[in-house]
């Protein structure tokens, strides 16, 4: 068989992915096998692959490929999210570049452009996931805005409205002036900003006296409707029941009292702008204050802003401060650092704004969703996120589910009059008409009298149904797919959307299916750069994943990123990790090439072959059991580390060396068969992590038909191993390493045989020790009088007579230096063990480790001092 000298990832990846797709290995239909289902966290349809996607989807693919190889009917549902705010922003920008304003076209025209944009760019990220090797069931790809998905969202809205869980209310919302929509509290990111704290003079009506009020936002004075003081603040007791005059505006407003005001903050007097601050809104409601909204949807001052009308809120801040100063109404301005709410979607500074919105009552549906997590019906990995989840669920607020956009599912509410309750909720306008006729008691109403709510639903209101809606579970609750695949098995996601998505999916699953939507949630860490900054395009600190895959191969990138990504812990990205992944591929490729270069002969196994085969068979079984244990705990990085060691150290470093024929000799056919059988088992273990190379090598080992592809081959199941055989071989490894260390430290060629003296009566794996250590003679139970290099393997003493060419004075000096180092080390260990607090409080296993260090150091010192006497 002709095998290329170097592995070619690009050629291999294209070839095998095409083969997998052609043979429909990723496609799943309900059958007699147990299902294993994962739904992808749907990336934004606007998105392109970034490092977070790489980590998240690699983990999902590892889980799915492993499940497939363990006999499950694995189904990984891919898809994309319509991302209302992000997609609408891109379409608006595209139209603007063509000289078209959104406000100048109809909703229908805008949606036509949005669908064109989605059709053109929407599949990009899914194609990139294929390059990564993701084994999704592409025949089942879903999009949250496709007809059947949208129908389920509307159905859910109507059902919840009819249950009294959805209501329409006048509330303070987080307004994003750039996206021109409200966003949820969870989508507001607070950032520290340098600004000014302005101390304004509010004159007391009918007096020359003034009240000093501090604010960071002087542009909001146009919405002031009161000044509030604490009723216990003696400084302002004389102002109770009086009025003050708003600077510049000239409006007379009352002085009110409320315990909310902090006497120690600022001047102890608070300007109340109910339309522009959530706390002011609450006070305004309590004291029945007038509501004056001084800003428009773009964040510009409106007609209430007088001569500043039409100007941007930030641009006028300095101008207003200047005018206040000129009019003697600015007492002072101080530098001030405060936290400002910004939109996660656009980065714009959020404006609190009073608006009529649709809300979903959360308290009733949150309680069962909290219980299933606390009771481990849904398990979190790592478990620490249960506390985060609990805190949020116990302090949950009603969910604002409406957005002032056109791209999304339009709210199915139809208005027939101007009254607050003159609306009905229905799937179609025809149904709405009948309901409206009945509610209004006006049989003469016509379709033309109805107008549908202009808002769309929050994107999360579609994705919270995702584990059900991908199987059309709300349209046809009894269909075979939802019955077979739901609940799904595992969810892999980031902790940053634990509230947006995870909690809400659990709520929806319990509401509609009376079952949790998944059994386990694995939270990945966040990919950060070496400065611990989250990777992002805006910071320019994120590498292009496609370029990484071109450079290191998809398998190399997958291994590199997983080697350092323990569950829930952030991953500090380093390109050297990818290099480590590629080096691992090279190591495996070269190991296979080595086996294929051997000449097979009809000859029996020798003793060293037998010892190596017996050991590696047990080591393989032990590692398989340990890998399975790590997977049960979702310690996927740890599972990969075990495989990495098994392949690199145990198989390549020890086993292949032990069975490798001497130069010019052939290998026993039986040894070769064992070796290839082991190699096949390693490829099975590696496949979930390195799908492309493992499939390539699997197919190179033997000619196989489509039913024998590695992707669908069952992994080996192990339940027993002989620990004694493994420990004996570890002892042999340590002994051989000691001999090699002797050669290296003395500059002696590996080809030069050595003889050993030992106090042991025998060695386990003696044949392997002789072969890999190039040992000509072993003197058991004996000592040498010659100057020698001595080391310990456990309690076994090994001595190698020194070559006559060596400088004994130099050897003595080295030994004395080592004794000196060991005595210093022993003092530090004994100091720790003499500390009663340490011994009492440390874990027993930690104390045991220190005691072992103490004994090892004492034994080595004794051995070296004895040897020094012979030099």
Largest sheet: 7 strands, mixed
Computed Rg: 36 Å
CATH superfamily of the domain at 545-721: Isoleucyl-tRNA Synthetase, Domain 1
| Range of helix content | 40-55%
Number of helices: 27
Average pLDDT reading = 91
Assembly of the depicted chains: single chain
Description:
By secondary structure, the protein is an alpha/beta fold. It is built from 27 helices and 31 strands. Among the domains are: 181-352, Valyl/Leucyl/Isoleucyl-tRNA synthetase, editing domain (Isoleucyl-tRNA Synthetase, domain 2); 545-721, Isoleucyl-tRNA Synthetase, Domain 1 (Orthogonal Bundle), CATH 1.10.730; 753-868, no CATH class. The chain is globular, with a radius of gyration of 36 Å.
Short description:
With 871 residues, the protein is of the alpha/beta class. The mean pLDDT is 91.
Quick tags:
single chain; 871 residues; alpha/beta; Isoleucyl-tRNA Synthetase, domain 2; Isoleucyl-tRNA Synthetase, Domain 1; seven-stranded mixed β-sheet; four-stranded antiparallel β-sheet; 27 helices; 31 strands; 17% strand; globular
Please write out the topology:
Elements: H1 9-22, E1 35-39, H2 51-69, E2 73-77, E3 79-80, H3 84-97, H4 107-121, H5 124-132, E4 142-143, H6 147-162, E5 166-176, E6 181-183, E7 188-204, E8 210-215, E9 226-229, E10 243-245, E11 252-257, E12 269-272, H7 278-286, H8 315-326, E13 330-343, E14 351-360, H9 363-374, E15 379-381, H10 385-394, E16 399-400, E17 402-403, E18 413-415, E19 423-425, H11 429-440, E20 451-452, E21 456-457, H12 460-463, H13 466-469, H14 480-485, E22 490-493, H15 498-512, E23 520-523, E24 527-528, H16 545-552, H17 554-562, E25 571-572, H18 575-596, E26 600-601, H19 607-632, H20 636-659, E27 667-668, H21 669-686, H22 691-701, H23 723-746, E28 754-758, H24 766-773, E29 775-780, E30 788-793, E31 796-801, H25 808-833, H26 836-841, H27 844-868
Parallel strand pairs: 1-2, 3-4, 9-11, 15-23, 22-23, 24-25, 26-27, 28-29
Antiparallel strand pairs: 5-6, 5-14, 7-8, 7-10, 7-13, 9-12, 10-11, 14-16, 17-21, 18-19, 18-20, 28-31, 30-31
